Amino acid sequence: MLHRRLLLSTATAMAAAFIAVPTLAQADEPIKVVATFSILGDMVKQIGDDKIELIPLVGPDGDAHVYQPTPQAAKAVSEADVLILNGLEFEGWLERLNEAASFDGALVVATSGIDPLAFDDHDEEGHDDHSEHSEAKHDDDHAEHDDHDHGEEHAEHKEHDHGDEHAEHDDHDHGEEHAEHKDHDDHGDEHAGHDHGAIDPNAWQSIDNAKLYVENITAGLAKADPSNASTFYTNSATYLAELEALEAEVSALVDTLPAEKRTVVTSHDAFGYFADDYGLRFEAPQGLSTESEPSAADVAELITQIREEGVSAVFVESITDNRLLEQIARETGATIGGTLYSDALSDEDGPAGTYIDMMRHNAITLSSALGS
């Protein structure tokens, strides 16, 4: 099984929330903000509203794992006042883009202050296993969240060499940060942009984490455009309340799943944070990246596991080639339980047009297919 454990990331994995943020002279003009992918872009939009001009680099239904920066993307980044990224090595292509764009604006790392999950890639047993601690963690996380002091958490993470990172980013050498990530994992050149190594970057799959995303984004926008800071913080408070309500709704839906139906089979391993939050186990033939190729042995073992555990439904993903999951469903007799959204939103008319819609849709899909 693939094993995940909570990991306090080193300085190479956790960057400062915002760095060298310039104050904009023309406050009446919307600030230009680039977000790296659609989920992040929606969060930024909820906070910035009409006070920002937003460009997401990887749009709805786009796969950030295989994204290749374009000249248009480089132009957008070079003209941006603020660049907001996920971090945790998710945007491996950003180093190349920064070099092409010569970005000198404010950099906001949305995952600053988040404890990332460790990801041990395919081991001898073959698949992903969250069962060791996920049930207990679900209860502990909610108890801790009630007393959660984000300010203290940020202060704790600041101890992890964030002062040095601030100094590095004050010179706007964003490429160095990504080069450090690259050296840390010793990626080969061919897949340097897409192999996430030992850290799971899909932190947005936890609604608790999404609240930290919102806080980091809000602080970054407010520092970049102080004249509209009150608007950003007002929008943020409204959005955080909506996330609180979403969390209760998703928890109620997942709680309907019986103990024997809490194994979820999907295309690639993108739901570790969701699994930890709600006491589920996710199995996937692919690893963290949609570029990874599962071995025949891994697929055969997953098919055996589905049969032995009586898994009744498997779930395709919006950004992946679903032929393998369809083959697994045929060979095991499982049904296709629906489509889950992992790394990208749908278009605005689809079932996952916003982050809140996406999380609600996934919970409803799981509950409908696996619930008693």
Your description of this structure?
The protein is an alpha/beta fold. It folds into two domains: 2-248, Nitrogenase molybdenum iron protein domain (Rossmann fold); 256-370, Rossmann fold (3-Layer(aba) Sandwich), CATH 3.40.50. It has helices at 38-48, 71-79, 94-101, 134-146, 150-158, 162-170, 174-185, 207-224, 229-254, 272-278, 296-309, 323-332, 355-370; strands at 2-6, 18-19, 31-37, 52-58, 82-85, 106-109, 117-119, 128-129, 199-200, 263-266, 281-283, 313-317, 335-340. A five-stranded mixed sheet has the order 2-6-5-3-4, with helices on both faces. A four-stranded mixed sheet has the order 8-1-7-9, with no helix packed on it. It has a four-stranded parallel sheet with strand order 11-10-12-13, sandwiched between helices. The protein is globular and about 60 Å long. The model is unreliable at 1-25 and 121-196 (pLDDT under 50).
Level-2 CATH architecture of the largest domain: 3-Layer(aba) Sandwich
**Rg from C-alpha positions?**
20 Å
How far the N terminus sits from the C terminus, by CA atoms, comes to 26 Å
Main sheet overview: 5 strands, mixed
Order of strands across the main sheet: 2-6-5-3-4
Brief summary:
The chain has 2 domains: 247 residues, 3-Layer(aba) Sandwich (Rossmann fold), CATH 3.40.50; 115 residues, 3-Layer(aba) Sandwich (Rossmann fold), CATH 3.40.50. It is 44% helix and 15% strand. The protein has 13 helices and 13 strands.
